[in-house]
Amino acid sequence: MEAAPFGSAFTSRSLSPPSSSSSTSQSLLCFRFNKARLKLKSPRTFAVRAAAARGGDSVVTLLDYGAGNVRSVRNAIRHLGFDIKDVQTPEDILGANRLIFPGVGAFASAMDVLNKKGMAEALCTYIMEDRPFLGICLGLQLLFESSEENGPVRGLGIIPGVVGRFDASSGLRVPHIGWNALKVREGSEILDDIGNRHVYFVHSYRALPSNDNMDWVSSTCNYGDNFIASVGKGNVHAVQFHPEKSGDVGLTVLRRFLSPKSHVTKKPTEGNASKLAKRVIACLDVRANDKGDLVVTKGDQYDVRERTEENEVRNLGKPVDLAGQYYKDGADEVSFLNITGFRDFPLGDLPMLQVLRYTSENVFVPLTVGGGIRDFTDANGRSYSSLEVASEYFRSGADKVSIGSDAVYAAEEYLRTRVKSGKSSLEQISRVYGNQAVVVSIDPRRMYIKSPEDVEFRSTRVTNPGPNGEEYAWYQCTVNGGREGRPIGAYELAKAVEDLGAGEILLNCIDCDGQGKGFDVDLVKLISDAVSIPVIASSGAGCVEHFTEVFEKTNASAALAAGIFHRKEVPIQAVKEHLLKEGIEVRI
């Protein structure tokens, strides 16, 4: 949807409360402003005023209400040379020179926190005075009148409109996860340096442009519908995408907001972004070697030890260094799999937490961590819930957590009882942080059969027959690093975890792992056709053509590789250049 370009000033509007009902716990504080009008400044006034405000003051006020990964926003702000002051009281909001609100999690939970702490009214006052504000993701959605997420739930009511869920009925994969293109309106200020390149989205709910809110819309994005990707009026801005996770492009957005008078020294490289890109993900299997040092390793069919007399753990580099290199090489995400046992560690001292903290300081793309997301008790007898483990990972820099064995057990119980207990790690984490923050890692093994009637699980015709000429196979799920088979198929597991709250599936294949002969396309097609959430193909990549094959023959949203990147056999950029040449959209 394209509208007329912005001028140097905007027409203000009265703010009316939403017509939908809501729980009495949601206050109507902001609707006291429903007859007020924004004291809007022209972009020129904004630049002069913000620059004067900074004059030696490099402090950014950050509204962090304690949900999800805000560390990446902090790191991005510091990376740009600014200091951070955290909001402790409503007065901190009112006293801010520039305010960033990186909202994450659920709409209702965020509004509840803002209302209980008295921050909703202060936030409305700050915004209504047209002071420098940047909302990120949920920080954009909360500006609207209400949300359908677990609702209806009232928002701050500053922008007309209702935040609704993406419609998956037509085959759209929800959550919307990945790098997508923007349609930027003229005069959008903080988006001036994007240069038609992709930015990173991860969300299940969105607001749609309308006649009532069009004067706020600064960019849109197409995913099923044209939804609002950013808003801007005067000094008030908000984005649905994550600039702190959008690489160098996202950093330009933050820089434009924090230093509106600054200009990039060279014109940004024009991109070719037109739609949601296929993602190329670098995976790092991390574990302690026999000396106790954390190293990146890689297995052959899950065996990570060298076939030598010493039988040492295969060492392919240091995790923080490799992650940083893959970010520079163009990886769309970096995924850590923690395969180190940690029964003897108190939660706060887990070695993987330090890896995340250091990595997130300089890597501005999404980070996923998996392994050990479960309840456990340390050597001191202290018990931790899976939610506590996940929360610590999020606070340390993870954007998503990947659950393996625990999700298998939860799915088995769900299929047996057809009841969602709400107690599994998968359900608890997705309820608190949103399903877009939860990946389920499936580790299946191919089991050949002569006929689909031979087993109770969903099977598929295989491209390459089995050792005895079998034309079909089902995929048995495993736990404990592939060491134990379970009575559940990959198809059944995928369907169950989607119901339980998974937002994405990481689909491995033990038979293909480390073989370099290509992804198991039969498996990936079976699962990606079965679910409406994104599927990441993993295991078996050996050359650039394997990525093209899995994207052309299946509905995979992303493809992951490890060994070929670690051993420098295939550079990430070579994969992307090949995909682009074959007509597959990627982020360059």
TrEMBL record:
Its EC number is 3.5.1.2. It catalyses: 5-[(5-phospho-1-deoxy-D-ribulos-1-ylimino)methylamino]-1-(5-phospho-beta-D-ribosyl)imidazole-4-carboxamide + L-glutamine = D-erythro-1-(imidazol-4-yl)glycerol 3-phosphate + 5-amino-1-(5-phospho-beta-D-ribosyl)imidazole-4-carboxamide + L-glutamate + H(+); L-glutamine + H2O = L-glutamate + NH4(+). Pathway: Amino-acid biosynthesis; L-histidine biosynthesis; L-histidine from 5-phospho-alpha-D-ribose 1-diphosphate: step 5/9. Pfam families: GATase, His_biosynth. InterPro entries: Aldolase_TIM (IPR013785), Class_I_gatase-like (IPR029062), GATASE (IPR017926), His_biosynth (IPR006062), HisF (IPR004651), IGPS_HisA/HisF (IPR050064), IGPS_HisHF (IPR014640), Imidazole-glycPsynth_HisH (IPR010139). Substrate binds at G372, N508. Its main location: plastid. The keyword S-adenosyl-L-methionine does not apply. Keywords: Amino-acid biosynthesis, Chloroplast, Glutamine amidotransferase, Histidine biosynthesis, Hydrolase, Lyase, Multifunctional enzyme, Plastid. It is found in: Plastid, Chloroplast. GO terms for cellular component: chloroplast. SUPFAM superfamilies: Class I glutamine amidotransferase-like, Ribulose-phoshate binding barrel. The active site is at C137 (for gatase activity), H242 (for gatase activity), E244 (for gatase activity), D285, D443. It is an enzyme of class 3 (hydrolase). IGPS catalyzes the conversion of PRFAR and glutamine to IGP, AICAR and glutamate. The glutaminase domain produces the ammonia necessary for the cyclase domain to produce IGP and AICAR from PRFAR. The ammonia is channeled to the active site of the cyclase domain. This is Imidazole glycerol phosphate synthase hisHF.
